[in-house]
Amino acid sequence: MSRAASVGDRLVAALLGLVLLAGGALVVAWRAGWAVQLLPAGPTGDGWSDRLPAPDAGSAVSAPWWPWACLGAAVVLVLIGLRWLVAHLPGRVDRRLRLDGSDASGRLEADLGTVADAAAADLARHDAVRSADGRCRQDAGRRFVDLAATVDPHADLPSVRAAADDTVARLGEALGDAAPVRVRVRVGRTDREPARRVT
Amino acid sequence: MSAALSDHLPTGPHARPAATPRREGGRVAGPEPRAVAGSRAVGVVLALVVTGLGVVAGREALAAWGAVPGGSWLPGAADALGAVGPQWWVLPAGVALALVGLALLLAALRPRRRRHLALGPDDRVWVGSGDLARLVRTSVGDLPGVLEARAGGTRRALRVDVTTTASATAPVQQQVTERVRALVADVRPQPRVRVRVRTGGAR
């Protein structure tokens, strides 16, 4: 999920939250009779104290422009909705890391996904680690190598950390700062607990 | 370098990442693991609602052209809204509407939850609070005299409940506390440790 989609979600949630909060407060005020003085009278003159204001839909529906307006709104809403949904799917991360040897005659690139796999295999070799998984991921627009090490419930934390530091150091020697690394230590489950998702 | 890693990592004089200064040891850490934002679920639901509204608008257009049976839904919906008077349910509905708005506002403003603790002085190795609790539970469960151990909590506080076969709980409490403190000595932030020991039946 991109940073733009994340910001968009927060923005729309905040705007809709404010609208619903204000709407709910208005409905409560209307029901309690406090809003009579604040709101204008309805078109029939009996005011909003009796009935909620409703648009005169009959005349709009019979207008010749109505179906075209609906069609336009349908296309726009469906496109926006589907685009918004697609924005929540895991995006493709550009896994190519350009290396110094690139010039006009050709490019030298490393595939960070393969590097992550190799780093995970390296991490899994340690006695303290039961298994490991490596991926090239992106969070808030930042690309990084994400390693997840599963350890035994009886594992010794300093040994696990030493194993992780060892692999991270190897990656650092090869890639420097170009590929930030994160290692998550997971403890093998002894019972059926629900896993939590993190990005 | 191990065979597995050296097979895939770039090596040689030209194999340095371009346009980034090289620093030995990979000092740049990846982002801290955090839970998925609550606003993401809101975004998915709203995207579905917007798409659904688009479908309804499309149906309205087709109904106006007589392509679908049943006519337009809009006048009926407007009439239903206009029929809403000061009935008893309007007040709780208004309160519910405001509460949903407040929940959305909180979801939009609340930062993604942190559930992981850093292992060591730098922010590269992380362990989840649930995983740490599982380690603690297993480790404490191995202590002599411990019949059953439970552990849980957050990244700020760790709670350990122990059932022991010993009638005197104080030595067990001290033993368990020392074991837990040693286990979490290397994590940041340091969680508060609360150990409760009670005497249970024989194993």
Written account of the structure:
The complex is a heterodimer of chains A (199) and B (203). Chain A is α+β, with helices and mostly antiparallel strands. Chain A has five helices and five strands; from the N terminus they run H-H-H-E-E-H-E-E-H-E. Helix content of chain A is 45%, strand content 17%. In chain A, strand 3 and strand 4 form a beta hairpin. In chain A, helix 4 runs antiparallel to helix 5. The radius of gyration of chain A is 29 Å and the shape is elongated. With 203 residues, chain B is α+β, with helices and mostly antiparallel strands. In chain B, 44% of the residues lie in helices and 17% in strands. Chain B contains six helices and six strands, in the order ααααββαββαββ. Chain B is elongated. At the A-B interface, helix 1, helix 2, helix 3, helix 4 and strand 4 of A face helix 1, helix 2, helix 3, helix 4 and strand 2 of B.
